[in-house]
Structures are given as structure tokens and as C-alpha cells.
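Changelog note: in this version the structure field was regenerated for every chain. One regenerated record is shown below for reference.
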Amino acid sequence: MPNQKKLYIKDRSKSNEHSTFPTFTAPVKVETPEFDCLILAIARDAEERRSSGSEANPYYAMDLIRQSRLGALRLPVKLGGSGASIRDLFHVIIRLAEADPDVAHSLRAHFSYVDELLRNPASELRDTWLQRVAEGAIIGNAFTELSSKNVGSLVFETTLSSEGDGYRLNGTKYFSTGTMYADWVLVMASTPDGKPVSMIIPTDREGVIIEDDWDGIGQRLTGSGTTHFNNVFVNKDEVNVIREDKTPFNSYVQLYLHAVIAGILRNVVTDASALVHKRTRTFSFAAADTASADPQLQQVIGQLSSSAFAAEAIVLAAADALDIAVNAAVDGVIDYALSHDASLRAAQAKVIVDDLALQASTLLFEVGGASATRQSANLDRHWRNIRTIASHNPTVYKARAIGNYVVNGTELPLKHVYF
């Protein structure tokens, strides 16, 4: 086992440092006073943790997510959710990322799996999981491995082997975003004969070791560390064989990242405006006596605001294509043409939103002067977070595939990592 920098031990007492814990008596719904209260509480918590100078993990925020049952947003009202569309959900993710991009990013695997459950045909197992989600359970992920296999392969070095009345799970996963905050973890593995399987097990089961060892330049508090499975017992009813003939639908998790970026851009605009108002002096050759009256600085902030608006509009337009594809699914299978269109829209969104966001997070410093570069200002976090998220998938490959489709009619690659 590699050296462990820090292990997460579930301890809900970490959340009790906040005496103003909001109370939610029903699942939170989009654009209600309760939703605004939730977003405000998460934003304040993020600001307090930043101001303290220590990179404390967002345990409080994640407990708010549980209590408000935000994770059940997509469930129908009759199943204990809010009945939100995918477009509604992506609007929520943008708002949540504006408040705290780490928290928004940490829920990516959860919301993706909940949508998969909703698409699948009714079954006892599906109903059990939807009930757990309705009660506030959060699901993390254990998918990625550092191996010689190409990204997107469904052949895993993590293995699931039969033992008695169940199985034993062994392996190591990396970039397990959100898992250290989750109650359950979705694990991908291979059987001895090479078949891909998935299972959801409790994160506190014996043999599950979660390391908080993510050392990226951004999104530092997403819990994207290493997860070890050391001879973990898995019940037979927890295992699901993956249908490789099923139409891939990965555009959801692709676009999700750009909803987080769009939320960060909202925060860039807020910080830019605040930065101008905080300036007590300007340059002797500036166009106005105060920074807030300076037309050049106003222009910069106008550009930032426009970029944030454009990014959000692009993401929500692409989310409409996801809604169309999902709503037309039959027995959990999405129509290939609709899946392809959703993938195309998500890819087009990435190509533009990445560029807009990276430019905007740099342009922010044009309104602040040299003092804005102080570490205490922490304004570089926006660029670091955007750069980290944008690096999840290669923009150049997306743009090439889009161009090949437009010019030659060649469909996008039929790979799980692309769709």
C-alpha cells in the first residue's frame, strides 16, 4: 500500500462547528427560499474556510446537502424528490459551483448515477436505491485506475472474485472524486474472466480505505484521492453486470464539469466587482479618479459578465439535448441518434466554455493591479480550478472530432469516455 498522507474517518461532529445549521423539513426545490438559504449557507462556509487560511474540507456543506436532500433533486415528487429536469439540475449545479466549486464537483458521480437509476426499468434494487437517495444518501465513485489501458477502457485491474456466498473485491482506484464525503461508493471492476461489473458498497465497510491525497493545483477539496479495496466482502445482490451493448451516454458527466466552470465564472464576476470597489486609489494616468468610475475597468467587467452569461447559456442549451435524450429512453436504453446529439452539444460546449473561462480568470487581474496577486487575495483559485476541470478531457480531441463530423459526417467516437 502506498504511503498514506491522510485518511478520512467519518466524523459528523465536524459539522457541528456551525451553530446556524439551516433546518429542512422537505426536499429542497429549485429557486425557492429554502434553496437560496442552502446556497447562502454553503457560500458562507466556503468563505469562512478560505478566510481561515486552512484548506478545511467541506464536511458542513455536504451535511447540508444530505439534510436538504438536494441529491434527490431529479427524483419524481412521489418518490421523495423535487421532480427537476436535467436543465433544472444543471442550473442548480451552476449556482452551487458559484457558492463552492469543490462541493458541486464532489456530487458529479452521485447525480450521474441517480440519473442512470431513473432511466433503468423498475426493479426492487432500483427502488431500494431511489429510496436511499430520497433519504439523503450520497454516492461517490471508484472508476479510474492508473494502468497501461487506454482511458475509457472497460477492462479493470480491480478484481471481483467469488468467495462463498459472495465476492471479494481487491484493487486501487484514483481520482475518486467525492468519495471521502459519500455514504456509498460505486465501484467498477472486472471478474476473473474479464467481464466488467459494478457494485455499490458502503464507504465504511471493512477493507475500504480512502486517502485524502489529491494534490492537484485546483479543486483541492473535492476529495479526489485514492481508494483502496483490500479484500472487501461484496454481497451478491450488490453486483451488477455492465451491458456493453448499451448505447453509451457519458455526455452527462462531460457537461456536468462545464456547469461547474460556469458557476466559477459567476464568482469571477462577483470578485471582479468587489475588487474594483475595494480599490482606494488608481493610476495617475487612469481615465477616472476612482476605479469604479473608470470606463476601462467597467469594460473589463462587462466582458467578464458577458463571458459568464455565455458559458451558462451554452451549458443550459446543451442540457436541453440531454433532457430530450433521457426523456425518450426505453427500458433504460437511449436512442443512439439522440445520445450522439447530446454528446455533440456537450463537446461543443466544452470547446468554447474552456476557452472563455480560462481567458476570464486571467482577465480578472486587469481590474485589480499588483495587489490582486497577493496570496491572501486567493484570486488565482479561479484559474487553478478552471484549469483543473478543463483538463479532465482533451479539448483538442473534442474539436477535431466535431470538425470531422461537420466536414465528413464521421460520427463521434463510440467510446464511454467520449459519450
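Spot check on this record: Confidence is low (pLDDT under 50) at residues 1-16. The chain has three domains: 12-138, 159-241, 251-408.
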